[in-house]
Specification:
By secondary structure, the protein is mainly beta. It contains seven helices and 30 strands. A hairpin with a 6-residue loop joins strand 2 (62-66) and strand 3.
Length: 624
């Protein structure tokens, strides 16, 4: 324990002095792609006006501001052509504007610093008259695009891990402050609604073309493989690299964003995922919501007898979800959410999940916020292969799995969580959050790569089991700060006391294969640090997560051991290819964290993953 605390103290000093991202611990959520705490530590403001080439103000123009590592922000110009973005994190923002009937100028980068108010005037030129537009040939190809009609696509950026967690899991530590940056300005027109916008948009063919012209997104051509040691990458007996194609499209409207994403893989494992969603922004009203659905399938054609015995047919998973945040009164927010999923390889194939929370700002002059949240979650064995992540490198089902006991029934893990938390900014650029929580877990999942029968790990296949039922109590503290430029950092410490309530039918096999997964009663210490930064001179963007814990299960030991796991992703922009009208990036990611969902489930979800292989992903990303 002395060694563990020493390593934790050194790590905390390093991260607090260097950049990192806000990172809450259990029961918050994660998937590499997100920066938290945007508005509390961000004091910049960007404002201006939109006018035509004669200086007349233009109303109803959609202005977007996007920064690397974050979702775009939107504002509508008012009757005087004015727009504003408040509570912006310091950084370089790409500002673009779109208005039907006008040619959109090229985007411009504006650097926002803490405490600054930056003004930007935008002039638009009218599109050519109908008789001057390029003709459409009989075959359907246009005669060319008029000069200056650059697409008004807003850059869609990969989110870092923390940002994704704060945007798409629960409204936990520092989440409300992020949404403040996209609130509608006082001058924005009232009474907008999604239905009215759609009716207005599709009322004429020209508006329909304008919407498709504003679609933006990305295409990823990737390769992924797994290894235990670096030399395994050159071993012919190791798993072959798998090609992956990933496409994401986003259509921004005045009231929100429509998004469609898809990913597919072909080889011994043929699989794909398709997902769609609509997100309503707070600039429209005080009620923000997101609804979506996804469908994934996996078919195995390899030679692994263990996988073939449980995958004679394809596995199919579908999910529908909805979540919302409603500001009932200025200081009181109601947060709700629900999920319904179908896993055809389970005996009881239908799973439910839900969330209910209340956040309250105690005093009007004090930013201290208190939150009470209740969560019910049901997670199927192998769910991490099928559930579409909210952002980041998105891989389709790439591994197969089977029960640890031959012929055993796959049972989902069920978790009930109650959490009380409070967060408050200190000193302007530092945020401190405290929380206490209770978890009740039924059929805690265990994931085992390889076994004592076969010391060579099987990277493309693993076994799942249940460790029994647990009751966990704990508390945690998160310290987050904006370090400099576009760099943010966070350190989170959590202590949890766990007690096993009931054993499982898999205990005999687990005692033989992975005895360290059999727990009775223990105290868990966890230290998680995160860094999210962009190096402007080289246009390099990186996200790193480091998780230090004293209760990892190791296949070679009968007791839990102190260890660390990590997740690193680096994106390097290639500006010499930008002449194509798109932005090109090289992507490389390495991780041995098995789960993307570290913070919205049991504290044991990652700790009881035995011998997880390292996974490396690389390729090219094209933004358009």
């Amino acid at each position: 324990m002395i060694g563990f605390l020493a390593r934790g103290w050194v790590l905390g000093v390093i991260v607090c002095a260097a950049p990192a991202t806000v990172f809450g611990q259990a029961p918050l959520k994660m998937s590499i792609q997100p920066v938290a705490n945007r508005s509390v530590v961000s004091l910049g403001e960007l404002y201006g006006s939109v006018h035509d080439d004669k200086g007349a103000p233009l109303s109803g123009a959609v202005v977007s501001a996007s920064v690397v590592g974050a979702a775009p922000l939107y504002a509508l110009s008012d009757g005087h052509g004015r727009y504003a973005f408040r509570n912006l994190a310091p950084g370089a923002y790409l500002v673009r504007v779109f208005l039907d009937g006008y040619a959109s100028p090229r985007g411009r980068y504006l650097h926002v610093t803490g405490g600054s108010r930056l003004a930007s005037e935008i002039a638009l030129n009218r599109n050519p008259a109908p008789e001057e537009k390029p003709s459409v040939l009989a075959a359907g190809f246009g005669g060319g695009r008029s000069p200056g009609s650059t697409t008004a696509a807003t850059e869609l950026e990969d989110e870092s891990e923390v940002e994704w967690r704060l945007r798409h899991s629960k409204r936990g530590v520092l989440k409300d402050s992020y949404d403040a940056a996209i609130e509608r300005t006082d001058e924005a027109p009232e009474g907008d609604s999604t239905i009215a916008t759609l009716r207005h948009t599709f009322a004429s063919p020209s508006r329909l073309v304008s919407i498709f012209d504003s679609v933006n997104g990305q295409v990823n051509l990737l390769t992924t493989t797994s290894f235990d040691r670096p030399q395994d990458l050159f071993d012919s007996t190791a798993g072959a690299p798998q090609p992956v194609a990933y496409v994401s499209l986003v259509a921004p409207l005045a009231t929100g964003d429509w998004a469609v994403r898809g990913s597919m893989m072909q080889g011994d494992i043929s699989s794909w995922i398709l997902a769609g969603s609509f997100t309503r922004n707070r600039k429209v009203s005080n009620h923000r919501y997101e609804v979506g659905l996804s469908y994934a399938t996996q078919h195995y054609q390899g030679a692994n007898a263990d996988a073939l015995s449980v995958m004679r047919d394809s596995r199919n998973v579908g999910e529908i979800y909805a979540q919302s945040s409603w500001d009932i009164v200025p200081r009181l927010t109601l947060e709700t959410g629900g999920r319904y999923a179908s896993y055809d390889y389970l005996a009881d194939r239908y799973l439910l999940g839900g969330r209910l929370g209340v956040a309250y700002q105690v005093m009007p002059e004090d930013p201290l916020r208190l939150r009470i949240t209740g969560i019910h979650r049901e997670m199927a064995p192998g769910a991490e292969e099928f559930v579409a992540p909210s952002s980041g490198v998105w891989l389709p089902p790439e591994r197969t799995f089977a029960p640890l006991r031959r012929g055993a029934e796959l049972r989902p893990e069920k978790v009930d969580i109650v959490e009380i938390s409070g967060e408050r900014p200190v000193g302007g650029d530092v945020v401190i959050a405290l929380r206490a929580f209770r978890q009740q877990v039924d059929d805690q999942l265990v994931t085992v790569f390889g076994s004592s029968l076969n010391r060579a790990p099987s990277f493309g296949h693993y076994r799942v089991a249940s460790a029994g039922d647990f009751e966990n109590y704990g508390w945690g503290v998160t310290v987050a700060r904006h370090v400099f430029g576009s760099t943010q950092a966070s350190v989170d410490y959590t202590m949890t006391d766990t007690t096993r309530r009931d054993v499982s039918a898999d205990r005999l096999m687990l005692r033989f294969v992975a005895p360290a997964t059999l727990r009775r009663q223990e105290r868990i210490h966890d230290l998680t640090a995160s860094v999210n930064s962009r190096v402007a001179p080289t246009a390099t963007r990186f996200v790193m997560v480091y998780k230090l814990n004293n209760s990892y299960a190791d296949a070679g030991s009968r007791q839990a051991e102190t260890g660390a796991r990590f997740d690193l992703q680096v994106n390097q922009e290639m500006p010499f290819l930008n002449f194509t009208g798109a932005r090109w990036e090289m992507l490389v990611g390495v991780r041995n964290l098995f789960r993307s969902d570290l913070f919205d489930g049991s504290v044991y979800d990652e700790l009881l993953v035995v011998r997880p292989p390292k996974r490396i992903t690389g390729g090219v990303t094209v933004w358009f």
